[in-house]
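Morning. Coffee machine broken again, so started the prediction first thing and wrote up yesterday's gels while waiting. Chain of 160 residues, entered below exactly as on the submission form.
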Amino acid sequence: MIDYDIQRCSRRCAASDRELKNDEVCYSVLLAEGADIVRRDYSAEGWPGPPEGAIGWWKSTVVDPNAGRMSWAPNDVMLHYFERLADDPAAEDARYVLALLLVRRRVLRVEANETDAGGRKVLVLHCGRNEAQYRVAEAVPSPERIAAIQQQLAELLQTS
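Came back before lunch.
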């Protein structure tokens, strides 16, 4: 897996060079420029849509840097919750999202991609903390479930 060092929001619109205000809706895009990956941020009115060849783009809200930051629960707490979700078939998509978060936090490492007997993609993950191996079916949440999963994980795993 390749990790990229992506810079934080510039707080400036790439189209107009005006400052992006706190709580303002903005769009960000990742682009390959030579060997580098660069991020460009846009105000809602300056957003031209994702350019051709964009690696990824997303819509977000500019956060006040002086506001009290939310922080995630300790990695061990998140890992324990991830393990508990294995017993809940209705939470398969939430477990998949949490697995990706734990990979991003380097708690879990992707060892392989497999296909199960039903033809579904499965991530094979390794945890160095407990030397355990996990198999997580790819369960991309529906647009309706995304907000619910975000809210659920934020309530359970974020602290102020």
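The helical segments are 75-85, 92-104, 143-157. Going to sketch it on the whiteboard this afternoon.
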